[in-house]
């Protein structure tokens, strides 16, 4: 614990070996009185299954970073149901060669009722989680730091100053 926030490493278990390096990713759960966050790293189905076999209820979180960037090798239906988040963040690159997040994965999280954000479109995503705040809103870098030619204020890019 630190300042009322609890940190718990859920995975990997001490004596469990996975051949696939992604499945050895650290899975961290962060909890406060008001919010829970799950950071599953690059885990794939085998690690998700291992977590589900121990205690599916411990996975329940308000906010999750999608495992393995939204690869179809992760975010199984059972895992998505167990996590049941309000928000899912996809950490992907713009036009990445892997095509992440995969549409099937996006559909699974949407069907669960989560709101989705993707760094490929928004840039950095910031949540300020304050005590007692029920519905925090994300701050998206690309919305907060637009260039003058990207502003939607009705002015033309040719109108740079007073005439």
UniProtKB/TrEMBL annotation:
InterPro entries: Competence_DNA_uptake, RibonucZ/Hydroxyglut_hydro. This is DNA internalization-related competence protein ComEC/Rec2. The lineage of its organism: Bacteria, Pseudomonadati, Pseudomonadota, Gammaproteobacteria, Chromatiales.
């Amino acid at each position: 614990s630190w300042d009322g926030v609890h940190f718990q490493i859920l995975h990997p278990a001490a004596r469990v070996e996975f051949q696939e390096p992604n499945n050895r990713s650290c899975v961290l759960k962060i909890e406060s009185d008001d919010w829970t966050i799950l950071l599953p790293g690059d885990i794939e189905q085998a690690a998700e299954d291992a977590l589900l076999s121990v205690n599916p209820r411990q996975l329940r979180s308000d906010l999750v970073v999608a495992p393995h960037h939204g690869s179809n090798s992760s975010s199984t239906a059972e895992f998505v149901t167990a996590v049941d988040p309000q928000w899912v963040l996809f950490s992907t690159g713009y036009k990445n060669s892997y095509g992440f997040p995969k549409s099937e994965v996006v559909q699974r999280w949407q069907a669960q009722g989560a709101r989705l954000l993707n760094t490929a479109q928004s840039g950095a995503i910031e949540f300020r989680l304050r005590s007692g705040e029920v519905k925090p809103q994300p701050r998206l870098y690309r919305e907060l730091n637009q260039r003058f030619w990207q502003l939607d204020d009705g002015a033309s890019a040719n109108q740079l100053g007073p005439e």
